[in-house]
Specification:
Chain lengths: 342, 357
């Protein structure tokens, strides 16, 4: 607990017991890091197993592609982490992502300049996030229902704007999308760069700002946070704004990736984002978890896909089954850890 | 008290009536029911038939939500049920024999019951949060369904099975008779015995109800098993309607529709008091809404938008804050002095404390 900045919100779960237990371990390790460590071990195991089973698996090209293919999901998972840390949930991110791709494509097709289109697409996500926050906090609609309504709303809006897929051929957008930095065999596209910046910002905001600490505090106990005089209303609404904005930005990255806007993109992507956050060690009750854990979670999901592609003989549905099994293992692990703590 | 009760059903019924009026205005013959070949035909009958699977799923969902839970896996269970039944029928030498069909139905229902038991085990014994426990099966379930069908859309021709989806019984669609029958039986059992009260006790305060001798764990386990079973039955109705098992799309988003039906019906997701008649109205609202969109000639792809608007309207009208406003307006600001003088965030403090209390 004495370590510098991270997560004051974890404090409500009895700070005394873990300290006494931690002494038994040879290395002093905070229990809060255990789930994330578990994710890291799984990721390392998958890399090792993949590396020994297949040639060309542990190559810079494959690892670069892992990031390139999942850049949008990383951004979604960062936003989702904020919401889940407050003890809420955001089911709308998949549809908002689709809405953002559709807005980008439709406006670019109408001839608007990129400098106008990009903020508008991200802003759409922000506005929807704000609406969620207001419904949830001021009208006390449960987060599940409010964001479910937002999910339907955004999806319906997509179809209203563009029932068909729109290709993006705006030269400056294409130039932005195809910007790539090559270090030896490693490749970094603009979307990966943006995703990494978002991860860095998310990390900084959560651990080094008042807003971030309040997010953890609300997840630890909303009543206590309120009694401590923390700005609960503002923070809760802002968490959904962050998630909505991340979904809008994720849509931009997806539009860069696919060079098109399509109403049916991102169906069930919110589940991937939630799964990534859970596998990354964040408790759905709120209060405990890390942005970097969620990033690891996304990488685990991406690696499952990669391994199944490498295996070749396995059908695509095994992805779903493996994700389900992994979720089960991680949830059981978290359960065991929290049982020991109490 | 009576006022509050009326509130619960007033808005959902108003939404249903508004939808029916809109339909009748757009197409005056909308409410007409005709008799053809000894069966009833017409849009209202059709709505009853399309409501059937949703009603079954929403019924299980209401019971689960009453215990403070949620079941996200029902869509996947629907897919598994269809996949099992149709694969069995397709692989048998004689798809038209009633024995084959009954075995297929029994197989599917038993498997779905087991899936429900699995969910219940995770929630009630291991104590995993319902949303996550059922998310596991929601993700893995469709994979399992695809495993069963081998990734193909299995289609069969079997007259006895088809009856489930598009047959008639006493002039009414079999699917509707079945679903409403199950609903009536469950409603009777829950409301005419102490079961409903025990469920509500579990949802309102699991610890207190256990201490006062309610078997919360068994009850929780039972509702998830029931939810799995009802979802399995819904899956049979859906696959019998199309005579195809599509592991990817069967029952897609039905869990969300069911949750919406429950919420529109006035049961809060926070558990406790539940309202089965509300769920019935909620399911009818959703089915009618889908119908309305086609009647009004709007592209069915835009349906989600209308769904969202109805949900937002109903949930906002039912929200504690809005009710408070309404009662406050009626009582001429009796509530006003209770609000703190703070101007920075006047809303957060009184609300949260009042809800807890």
């Amino acid at each position: 607990m004495a370590t510098s900045a991270p997560a004051p919100g974890a404090a409500p779960t009895e700070p005394v017991a873990p300290k006494a237990r931690a002494r038994k371990l040879p290395v002093r390790l905070d229990r809060r890091y255990l789930p994330v460590l578990g994710t890291f071990v799984v990721l390392a195991l998958m890399l090792i197993v993949g590396g020994t089973r297949y040639d060309n698996f542990l190559t810079p090209a494959v690892i670069s592609n892992l990031f390139i293919n999942n850049a949008h999901l990383i951004v979604l998972a960062v936003g989702m982490t904020f919401v889940i840390l407050t003890g809420g949930i955001d089911l709308s991110v998949g549809s908002v992502l689709a809405l953002s791709t559709v807005i980008t494509a439709a406006l670019l097709q109408a001839g608007l300049p990129v400098a106008v289109v990009l903020p508008l697409a991200v802003g759409a996500g922000t506005v929807i996030g704000l609406a969620h926050g207001v419904m949830i906090h001021y009208f006390q609609v449960q987060p599940f229902v409010a964001t479910l309504a937002g999910m339907f709303f955004a999806r319906g809006l997509c179809f209203l704007i563009a029932p068909e897929s729109i290709a993006i051929d705006d030269p400056s957008f294409v130039a932005l999308a195809s910007w790539v930095q090559i270090f030896g065999e490693w490749r970094m596209t603009s979307s990966v760069l943006i995703a990494l910046i978002v991860v860095g910002l998310g990390f900084l905001v959560l651990h080094f700002t008042r807003f971030g600490r309040t997010v953890y505090a609300i997840g630890g106990g909303e009543q206590s946070a309120l009694l401590m005089g923390l700005p609960v209303a503002r923070t809760k609404v802002l968490a959904y704004v962050v998630s909505g904005t991340c979904a809008g930005l994720g849509g931009l990255l997806f539009a860069m990736f696919s060079r098109s806007g399509y109403s049916l993109t991102g169906v069930a992507m919110e589940l991937d984002a939630i799964a990534a956050v859970v596998i990354g060690g964040t408790l759905l009750t709120g209060g405990t978890g890390f942005v970097l854990g969620s990033v690891l979670g996304v990488l685990v999901l991406g690696l499952i896909q990669t391994i199944i592609t490498f295996e070749g003989t396995l059908s695509s549905w095994w992805t779903k089954i493996v994700i389900g099994v992994l979720l089960l293992i991680f949830v059981a692990l978290q359960r065991v850890l929290s049982l020991r703590r109490t | 008290m009576r006022d509050v009760l009326r509130h619960h059903l007033f808005w959902p019924v108003a939404a249903l009536v508004a939808l029916l009026v809109a339909n009748t205005v757009a197409r005056p013959s909308f409410l007409a029911v005709t008799v053809r070949d000894g069966h009833l035909f017409g849009a209202p009958i059709d709505i009853l038939r399309t409501t059937a699977p949703l009603l079954l799923v929403a019924l299980g969902m209401t019971l689960v939500i009453a215990t403070r839970g949620i079941d996200l896996s029902v869509g996947a269970v629907v897919a598994v049920s269809g996949a099992v039944a149709l694969s069995h029928i397709a692989s048998s030498p004689n798809p038209d024999s009633p024995v084959t069909v009954l075995t297929a139905i029994a197989l599917a229902l038993v498997l779905c019951l087991l899936l429900g038991v699995w969910n219940g085990f995770l929630v009630s014994v291991l104590g995993i949060q319902p949303i996550i426990a059922t998310l596991i099966l929601m993700t893995a379930g469709r994979g399992v369904a695809m495993l069963i069908t081998g990734g193909m859309i299995t289609t069969v021709n079997s007259a006895p099975f088809k009856v489930l989806g598009s047959g008639f019984w006493l002039g009414l669609p079999t699917a509707a008779v079945l679903a409403f029958g199950v609903f009536a039986v469950v409603a009777f059992v829950v409301r005419r015995t102490a079961l409903g009260m025990l469920l509500e006790a579990t949802g309102i305060n699991p610890a207190a109800s256990r201490l006062s001798g309610v078997r919360s764990r068994t009850l929780t386990w039972t509702v998830y098993a029931a939810s799995g079973l009802f979802a399995g039955l819904a899956g049979l109705l859906i696959s019998a309607d199309t005579m195809a098992a599509d592991a990817n799309n069967a029952g897609l988003f039905i869990e969300l529709d069911a949750i919406l039906a429950v919420v529109i019906g006035g049961t809060a997701l926070s558990g406790g008091k539940f309202n089965l008649s509300g769920t019935l109205v909620g399911a009818l609202v959703i089915a009618t809404l889908e119908r309305t969109v086609t009647v009004l000639g709007i592209s069915p792809l835009v349906t989600p938008l209308f769904m969202a608007l109805v949900v937002i309207a109903v949930t906002l009208l039912q929200s504690p804050r809005m009710r408070e406003r309404l009662t406050a307006a009626r009582r001429r600001q009796v509530m006003a002095p209770a609000e703190p003088p703070s101007t920075a965030r006047p809303d957060s403090t009184p609300d949260s404390t009042e809800v807890k209390a």
